[in-house]
């Protein structure tokens, strides 16, 4: 990144003003290198000098720290940028990982208020977040409501929900959902299978009987 920054600075010195693509590339590089302060520095430079940052630039930065992500999300709204499902999903994911499940739930429910429908990925994130917070019943209600938004559970959603049951000691429900998943032609992934095998090894009898 240091070499890239030297080239970037040289462009400016030679009177070749970087465009939004150049800025976004640099910001993305800093984010991947976990150098978020420098990424934010470039972002503020764009905001002050132009060009106007677009949705891609915001989305890249939102994958950094959750505090900055919330600020950037509000900035996107204030700029009147058309928000699709992507920035919402990025922010919901960050909130869930940071343990801010109530804020994540609020944002998830705002989707419909803004004319958007959650996709499978957004549902998987929320279901996983709820289970990690010890709320498997609420997660399962959300899992069951996916059809209300014309979004049917795929293999990923089934596996996430089953793992959530297992991690919260809902063994019977996990087994029932596994049977349902297999009946629909889906398979347990390696993580789900490992959890089941671990339970079988440490129990007196097979949980699948």
TrEMBL record:
Superkingdom as given in the UniProt entry: Eukaryota
SUPFAM superfamilies per UniProt: HCP-like
PPR repeats: 19-53, 84-118, 119-153, 154-188
One Pfam family it belongs to: PPR_2
Alphabetical UniProt keywords: Repeat
Protein known as: Pentacotripeptide-repeat region of PRORP domain-containing protein
């Amino acid at each position: 990144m240091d070499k890239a920054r030297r080239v970037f600075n040289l462009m400016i010195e030679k009177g070749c003003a970087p465009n939004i693509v150049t800025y976004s590339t640099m910001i993305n590089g800093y984010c991947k290198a976990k150098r978020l302060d420098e990424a934010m520095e470039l972002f503020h430079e764009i905001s002050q000098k132009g060009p106007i940052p677009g949705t891609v630039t915001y989305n890249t930065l939102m994958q950094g720290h959750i505090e900055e992500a919330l600020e950037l999300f509000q900035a996107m709204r204030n700029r009147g940028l058309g928000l699709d499902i992507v920035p919402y999903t990025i922010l919901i994911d960050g909130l869930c990982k940071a343990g801010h499940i109530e804020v994540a739930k609020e944002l998830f429910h705002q989707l419909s208020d803004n004319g958007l429908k959650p996709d499978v990925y957004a549902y998987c994130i929320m279901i996983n977040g709820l289970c990690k917070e010890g709320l498997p019943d609420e997660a399962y209600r959300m899992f069951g409501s996916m059809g209300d938004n014309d979004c049917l559970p795929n293999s990923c959603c089934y596996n996430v929900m089953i793992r959530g049951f297992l991690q919260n000691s809902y063994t019977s429900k996990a087994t029932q959902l596994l049977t349902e998943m297999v009946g629909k032609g889906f398979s347990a992934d390696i993580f789900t299978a490992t959890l089941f095998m671990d339970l079988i090894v440490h129990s007196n009898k097979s949980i699948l009987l």
